Fold this sequence. Notes:
The chain is an alpha/beta fold. The protein contains ten helices and twelve strands. The protein has a six-stranded mixed beta sheet with strand order 2-1-3-5-6-4, sandwiched between helices.
Amino acid sequence: xxxxxxxxxxxxxxxxxxxxxxxxxxxxxxxxxxxxxxxxxxxxxxxxxxxxxxxxxxxxxxxxxxxxxxxxxxxxxxxxxxxxxxxxxxxxxxxxxxxxxxxxxxxxxxxxxxxxxxxxxxxxxxxxxxxxxxxxxxxxxxxxxxxxxxxxxxxxxxxxxxxxxxxxxxxxxxxxxxxxxxxxxxxxxxxxxxxxxxxxxxxxxxxxxxxxxxxxxxxxxxxxxxxxxxxxxxxxxxxxxxxxxxxxxxxxxxxxxxxxxxxxxxxxxxx
Length: 271
C-alpha cells in the first residue's frame, strides 16, 4: 500500500463471482484518483450471506457490490435504502454508515447513463419493450420510467411475475410471448432475460423494431452472442450490456468515495 494512503476495503458478494470484471473495473477507477483499494470476491450462498457480510464489516469493509442471487437479501438486510432500491426490492450496492448498511441500486442509473450518454439514445417519448420480468427488470424499471417513455411493455412467460412488477411500478403494460406479434413496433427493445446464458436468443421478428430502433441486451460477452447474432442477421442495431456494467460500477464507486470516475476509458479497455 502507498505510504500515507488509507486502504479502502470493498468487495463483491454473490455466487458465482470468480470471473467478475468488478475488481479490475474498480482498480481502474481508483487509479484515476490515486486511491488505494482492496476489492475482494466473496462467493457465498444466501444462507451464509449475513454472516459473511458481518465478517467483511468487522474486517474494515466500507462498501460492497451485490450480484445474483443475493440482491434481494442485501436489500432486506440493510438498515436503510434509497427509494430506488426499495421499489426494486433489491440492492446491488451497500455502503456502511453509523446506522448500519445503506442499500442502493445502481443498475437503473447505469443503464440510463449508457443509453443516453454513451450512445445518445433518447428514452423520453419512446415506446419500450422489456423482455423478462425478473430481478434484472426490477432493477432498471424505476430509472427508465423517470425518463418519461411513451409506453413500457413487459413480455414474460410467467404473467403473474409481470403483473407483480406492474402493480409495484405502475404505468406498465404486460403481455405473454405469444402476444408479441400483435404489440406493434418499439423504439427500444431491452433483453433482461437469462436466455443468453443458455446459448439462446429471445424469439424476435423484425416487425418488433420501429425504424431506427435499438436492441439493448443487459448481457455482455459470451451471454450476449446469441441475440447479437440474431440482430446482425436482421440488420438491426444492437448494444450489449458492457457499458451498463461499467456505468453502474461508476455509480457505486461514487457512493463509496464521493468521486465520480471517468467511465469511457474503462469501457474502452474491455471492448
